[in-house]
């Protein structure tokens, strides 16, 4: 379960620093946005969210380059960096929190196993990515990805 304290802390930090946040999600399918919106005061800091499950959506809404997707795949550090930049730009947000991964139970390969999730966070021009390999059911992988994303954003903003 996502720590309500972390959700609240993220919104509190954003409010204190007069920052806005937007999300772009693939494997988490809106759960990161939902976690942010769980916290009171989110309406003052949350701009908008994108669920860019397909590669076409990543290109169309976030400006991820077709070449990046072809060379590295949707589940890669390179794609998540472009998703974060594109999300912040499209939403005119100070912070962008993004995810792309393989929640399973199918879809994994030896190089990119089920549970592999890249999280990216953009904060006023700085981008940090984290590669995770979670375990459990599809829902458990997605929940762990949300927790990792919220933690990354809090760590970067603090």
Describe this structure in words.
Helix content is 44%, strand content 22%. With 158 residues, it is an alpha/beta fold. The chain has a single domain (4-157), classed as Alpha-Beta Complex (Maf protein). A 5-stranded mixed beta sheet has the order 2-1-3-4-5, with helices on both faces. Strand 4 and strand 5 (126-133) form a beta hairpin. The chain is globular, with a radius of gyration of 14 Å. It starts with a helix and ends with a helix.
Topology:
Layout: H1 4-16, E1 21-25, H2 31-37, E2 46-51, H3 55-62, H4 66-72, H5 77-91, E3 95-101, E4 116-123, E5 126-133, H6 138-157
Note the main attributes of this structure.
Maf protein; globular; 6 helices; alpha/beta; 22% strand; 5-stranded mixed β-sheet
How many structurally independent domains? 1
* Total E-strand runs: 5
Quickly give the CATH architecture.
Alpha-Beta Complex
Task: Give, in order, the helices and strands.
Answer: HEHEHHHEEEH
Shape: globular
Task: Detail the poorly predicted runs.
Answer: none
Annotated CATH topology: Maf protein
Distance between the ends: 22 Å
Strand order of the largest sheet: 2-1-3-4-5
What does the average pLDDT come to? 96
Distinct helical segment count: 6
Strand content: 15-25%
Structural class: alpha/beta
CATH superfamily: CinA-like
Largest sheet: 5 strands, mixed
| CATH class value | Alpha Beta
The Rg value, from CA coordinates, equals 14 Å
Q: How much helicity do the residues have? A: 40-55%
